[in-house]
Design goal:
alpha/beta; 39% helix; iron-sulfur (chains A, B); three-stranded antiparallel beta sheet; iron (chains A, B); ThiC/Bza_core_dom (chains A, B); eight-stranded parallel β-barrel; 605 residues; 15 strands; homodimer
C-alpha cells in the first residue's frame, strides 16, 4: 500500500468544551487530558472538569489522519524501562484474515511498527511493576485522570454514600494506584504494543467505567467504518472498546483500530481462532489458539476475554437451563469439550497463556462462558461453578504477574444481583468485576439498554468496576450509530449513578452544576453539562426553538405562570425579605415553637 | 352541540393478542378483561395471559365512538348500593374553561350524564365498604384481574424474591382485596361518577402500577388529541392517567377524557383553581378551590393530588436548597402561604376536603410539594418534614373513610432511595406510595426516562405501589406521541422488574415464555411476547428483513456459525446422547468424583 485518500472520522470538541492537559509530578512531561465545560458568565463559576476518554479526536489542536494512527506517547515510557525488545514478529497469514480473497482484502495499515515483547525472563506488566514498588507513568497518568477537580474542591467535599466495602479515597495518589494494582484490585490494561493508549484504570475504588462493543459483520465493514465506530463510542464516553469482529479481514481491521485507539482495546481471541478453522469448532486446537494470542498481542490488544472457566464437568449443569449457554465463547468451548470429551485446552494451558500475557502485558478478562441468558437461569449451579473456577484461575494469573478482571452476567433479576457481586468478591479475591448489564427482565427486547441499565447501575454501586454496555438492538440485530450512542449514554448514566451512590468525592460536582444551571434558567449550561448536549438542546428546541427562549425564565412544560422554579425564586426573595425567616427555620429544626400556632388548631375543625 | 364527525383514536389488538374475559363468582355478570398472547403451534404451550389496561380500544368487538363515550359498566354497581342520588350538579361557568372566548371553546361532550353523590350521611368509598365487610364488584374485579394465569400455574410456582416486608399472596381473593383496602394498604380509585372505569388496585401487595401524565398545553390541543393521548398511553400499559392540563378548556377537555377512559383519571385541582384566578397565586381562596373539587368530582375524576403537606413552617427549610421547590402545586401553595403569612388553606380545610372526597369516592394522592428537584436536595429536612405532615393527613383521611396514597420523590441518588420508602411506610401507616421516578442523577436531560427508570425499579421493589412515568422530554419540553410510548414502556420495565424481584408469583411467566421462544428461535413469539412488539420486530427486520429469517435458527448479531443458542442445542443433544451425562452432573453436585481426573493435573503444568 502506498497511499490512501484521507479517511475521515468524527472530530471536534463537544459544545462549550475545551481540552485541558494536566502535567505529572513524577513524570512532568506527561499531559493528562481532561474536558473543561465552560459556563455562562452569569454563573460566576469556574468551568466544570469532566473525565475525558475521547482522545485527540475532540482536540482541535490535534491532526487526525487514521492512515498514520495516533501519536505513540507510551513508546518512550515502555522503552525507558529497558525490559522489552523489538523483534520481527509473526508473519501475517491468509488465515488471519479469514482466507479472504486478495480483492476482498482490507488494506494493510500503512504505517507498521515492529512489535515489542518482554526480554527473556522479564515480566512487563503493570502488576509486576506495582509489586516491585515502581510507580509507572501509566500509574501517575491514571491517578491524575481519576481526580478530576477533586483537589480544588477538597475542602468543601462532604462524603455521602454507601460503598459496600469499597474504599474510594478522598484523593487518588500515584501510590494508591500502585497499591491497588499490586494487590490485584485494579487493572491498567495497557499492552506494551499499544503505544497510542491514554492509560485508564478499572477497579472498584475508582470511577466506574463502561465498555462498548464494536465489530465488523460477516457482510461488510470497511476499516474506516470500524475506526469511526470506535471514535464515535469514545466520543460519548466509552472507556474501553471491544472489537468482537468475526468473519473476514479481522487482522487488518484490528490493526487500523488499535493504531487509532486512545482507549484499551479488548478482544475474544477464540472468535478469530474459530475463523482460522473455518468455523468448525471440533477442529480448534491449542496451537491455533496460542498463535492467535501472539498475533493479537503483537498488534497491541490490551485485554483478552478467555473462557477458561468452562469445564467439561460444568456442561451437564446447563442441560436443563431455559436458554442453555448464551455466551458465544462459552458455547464454543463447551461444544469442543463435549465433542472431544476432554478438558478445555484453555484451562489446561492456562499457565502458558499467562506467559504470553506477561510478555506483552495483556490483561485477562476471564470470560463467563456460562452466564445466565434469562431470568430463569440466573445464579444457578452452572454459573456459580464457573465463577469458582475463575477464582482459581485468578490466583494462577496473579502468580504469573498478570492482570486479571472477571466477567459477569448477563440476565439477573434485581434481588439476585448483590449475590453475584458478593460471591465474585469472595471467590475472586477482589479482582475487578466486569459485567454485562445485567438485564433485570427478559420481556423488553428493543429496550434492553434500559432493562440492563437498571441492573448495571445497581451492580456498579455494589462494586462492579466496569459495565459492558447493551444497546437497544440486543437480541434483535446489529447496532447502528444511534444505537451505539444510546447504549453508551445509558451506561454512562448507570456508571455515574453508581459513583454517586458510592459517594465518589467528585461525582456530584457535575450534578450540582447542572442543577444550579436549571434553577437559574441557564439553558445553555444545562445542555452543555449534560451527557448528550445535542439531544438535550434538540428536545428543548422542538417546543421552544427561538434563541430568546434560551434565556427564558420558564420552559414549555409549565409555561411562565406555572413554573415552580420561577415561583421558587420569588419565594426565596420573599422569604429572605421577611425578617427572621431563616432563624425560624432553625428554631423549627431545633424543635422549638412554630409560628402561627393558632392556625394549627384549625386542622381539627 | 348536535352532531360531530366521528373522531378517531388508535384501536385494534396488539399482535397475536385476543381479549379474553373472565366472569366473577360473586358477581357472575362481570367480565374482567385479560390479554392472551397466542404462541406458535410448535411451542405446544397455551397462550400467555397478561394484564390488560388498554380498555375496549384493543377489542375488535367493541364499537368505539368518542362522542358517545365508553359503556358505563359501573352504573349498575353504584346504583345497586342505594346510597347515592342523582342531582342537578354545579352549572359550568366561564372560569371552568379558563375564560376562553366562545369561538375558542372546545365542544361540550355531547352525551352528558347527571352526576351522582352520596346520600346525606353516607360514605360511598371503597374503604368504607371494605371496613363494613362488604366485597364490592370493584373488589372482585381487581382480584380476578391481579391473578392473571396464577391459578393455572399454582402448583408449579416456586416463589423466589425479596419482598421487604410486603405480603404478596400466592392467590388474590376478593376477601384479600377487601382486607387490604380496609386497612388502607391499597386503594381502588373509582369515583362513583366514572362509570366507564375498569377498576384497578394500587398497593404494595399487588402488581406494581404505572401512571402516565397527559395534558393540553397553553397553545393548543383538541379534545380528540387529548383522548388519543390517553388511549395511546393505556395501549402500552399505563394503569392510570393524570390530566395535568393548564390553560383553557380544561373543563370541557376533561369531560371528553373521563367519558372515554377505562382507567382511573387523576388531576391536580390547584392547577384549575389557579386558572380561575387568572394565574394570580395570591388570589386563590378556599372557596374557589372547594368549588373546583366539586366540579371535578362531578365529572368523575378518580384521584386528586392535594398538596396539603406544604406548611408555612416548612418553607424556610427550602430556602437554601439548590433547586428550591420544584413541585408546581407545592410552589403555588408555598407562595400563597408566604404572601398571606397564613397556614395553607388545604391544610386548614383538610377535613372539609375529606367530606367531598367521601361523597364521590375520590382517592387522595397527597402531593409531595417539597420533593427534591435535584440530587443535592434529596432526603433533606424540608422533604421529610412534609412527609410527616402527610402521615398526619393520612390518619385524618382514614378517619373520614377516604382512600389515600402518598406521592414521593423526585431526584434521589440510589443510596438514599430505600430511606424514602422505609420512612414513608413508617410515618404514613403503609398507605400506598406513588413516586415520580426517582431520578438517580441530574446529568442526563434527554434521557431522564432512564435516569428515573433505574430509581423507579428500585423503589418499586422496595415497596412503591405505583410509579409515575418520566419521559425523555422531562426538563426540556412537551412529550410527543413517541415520548409517551417510550416513557410508558420504560416504566412497564421498571414495574415488572420490581414484580420479579419481589417474587410476584405470576410475573415470571412472561419472561420464561419469551426466553423459551428465544432459545427455540420462535422469532414471532419473541416479538409478540415483548412489551413493544412493533419495535422489536422492526429492529429485527432492519438487519434480516426476509420472512424466511423469522424462522432462522440464528440472528444477525452472530450469524449461524457463532450462534451460541444453536451450539447450545447441539450441546444439549450431544449431552443427552452421552450416557450418564445427567447422572454425572448429579454426582458433581453431590460432591462426588469428576470425570477425567487425570487431566485436572495438567492445569499445574
Amino acid at each position: 500500500m502506498t497511499s490512501h485518500p484521507t479517511l475521515t472520522v468524527t472530530t471536534g470538541p463537544l459544545p462549550a468544551s475545551t481540552k485541558a492537559f494536566r502535567p505529572g509530578v513524577l513524570y512532568p512531561d506527561m499531559r493528562v487530558p481532561m474536558r473543561e465545560i465552560a459556563l455562562h458568565p452569569s454563573a460566576a463559576e469556574p468551568p466544570v472538569t469532566v473525565y475525558d476518554c475521547s482522545g485527540p479526536y475532540t482536540d482541535p489542536g490535534a491532526e487526525i489522519a487514521i492512515e498514520r494512527g495516533l501519536s505513540r506517547l507510551r513508546e518512550g515510557w515502555v522503552a525507558s524501562r529497558r525490559d522489552t525488545e523489538a523483534y520481527e514478529g509473526r508473519p501475517v497469514q491468509p488465515a488471519d484474515n479469514g482466507f479472504v480473497s486478495p480483492d476482498g482484502l482490507t488494506p494493510v495499515f500503512p504505517a507498521p511498527h515492529r512489535p515489542m515483547r518482554a526480554k527473556e525472563g522479564k515480566a512487563v506488566t503493570q502488576i509486576a511493576y506495582a509489586r516491585a514498588g515502581i510507580v509507572t507513568p501509566e500509574m501517575e497518568f491514571v491517578a491524575i485522570r481519576e481526580n478530576l477537580g477533586r483537589k480544588a474542591i477538597r475542602e468543601k467535599m462532604a462524603r455521602d454514600g454507601e460503598m459496600y466495602g469499597a474504599s474510594v479515597p478522598d484523593y487518588v495518589t500515584p501510590e494508591f494506584v500502585r497499591d491497588e494494582v499490586a494487590r490485584g484490585r485494579a487493572v491498567i490494561p495497557a499492552n506494551i504494543n499499544h503505544s497510542e493508549l491514554e492509560p485508564m484504570i478499572i477497579g472498584r475504588n475508582f470511577l466506574v467505567k463502561i465498555n462498548a462493543n464494536i465489530g465488523n459483520s460477516a457482510v461488510t465493514s470497511s476499516m474506516a467504518e470500524e475506526v469511526e465506530k470506535m471514535v464515535w463510542a469514545i466520543r460519548w464516553g466509552a472507556d474501553t472498546v471491544m472489537d468482537l469482529s468475526t468473519g473476514r479481514n479481522i487482522h487488518n481491521i484490528r490493526e487500523w483500530i488499535v493504531r487509532n485507539a486512545p482507549v484499551p482495546i479488548g478482544t475474544v481471541p477464540i472468535y478469530q481462532a474459530l475463523e482460522k478453522v473455518s468455523g468448525v469448532v471440533e477442529d480448534l486446537t491449542w496451537e491455533i489458539f496460542r498463535d492467535t494470542l501472539i498475533e493479537q498481542s503483537e498488534q497491541g490488544v490490551d485485554y483478552f476475554t478467555i473462557h477458561a472457566g468452562v469445564l467439561l464437568r460444568h456442561i451437564p449443569l446447563t442441560v436443563n437451563r431455559v436458554t442453555g449457554i448464551v455466551s458465544r465463547g462459552g458455547s464454543i468451548m463447551a461444544k469442543w469439550c463435549l465433542h472431544h470429551h476432554r478438558e478445555s485446552f484453555l484451562y489446561e494451558h492456562f499457565e502458558e497463556i499467562c506467559e504470553i500475557a506477561r510478555a506483552y502485558d495483556v490483561t485477562f478478562s476471564l470470560g463467563d462462558g456460562l452466564r445466565p441468558g434469562c431470568i430463569a437461569d440466573a445464579n444457578d449451579a452452572a454459573q456459580f461453578a464457573e465463577l469458582e473456577t475463575l477464582g482459581e484461575l485468578t490466583q494462577i494469573a496473579w502468580k504469573h504477574d498478570c492482570q486479571v478482571m472477571i466477567e459477569g452476567p448477563g440476565h439477573v433479576p434485581m434481588h439476585k444481583i448483590k449475590e453475584n457481586m458478593d460471591k465474585q468478591l469472595e471467590v475472586c479475591g477482589e479482582a475487578p468485576f466486569y459485567t454485562l448489564g445485567p438485564l433485570t427482565t427478559d420481556i423488553a427486547p428493543g429496550y434492553d439498554h434500559i432493562t440492563s441499565g437498571i441492573g448495571a447501575a445497581m451492580i456498579g454501586w455494589f462494586g462492579t468496576a466496569m459495565l459492558c454496555y447493551v444497546t437497544p438492538k440486543e437480541h434483535l440485530g446489529l447496532p447502528d450509530r444511534d444505537d451505539v450512542k444510546t447504549g453508551v449514554i445509558t451506561y454512562k448514566i448507570a456508571a455515574h449513578a453508581a459513583d454517586l451512590a458510592k459517594g465518589h468525592p467528585a461525582a456530584k460536582i457535575r450534578d450540582d452544576a447542572l442543577s444550579r444551571a436549571r434553577f437559574e434558567f441557564r439553558w445553555e449550561d444545562q445542555f452543555n453539562l449534560s451527557l448528550d448536549p445535542d439531544t438535550a438542546r434538540s428536545f428543548h428546541d422542538q417546543t421552544l426553538p427561538k434563541e430568546a427562549h434560551k434565556v427564558a425564565h420558564f420552559c414549555s412544560m409549565c409555561g411562565p405562570k406555572f413554573c415552580s422554579m420561577k415561583i421558587s425564586h420569588d419565594i426565596r426573595e420573599e422569604a429572605r425579605a421577611q425578617a427572621g425567616m431563616v432563624e425560624m427555620a432553625k428554631r423549627y429544626r431545633d424543635g422549638g415553637d412554630l409560628y402561627i400556632p393558632v392556625e394549627e388548631d384549625a386542622v381539627g375543625s
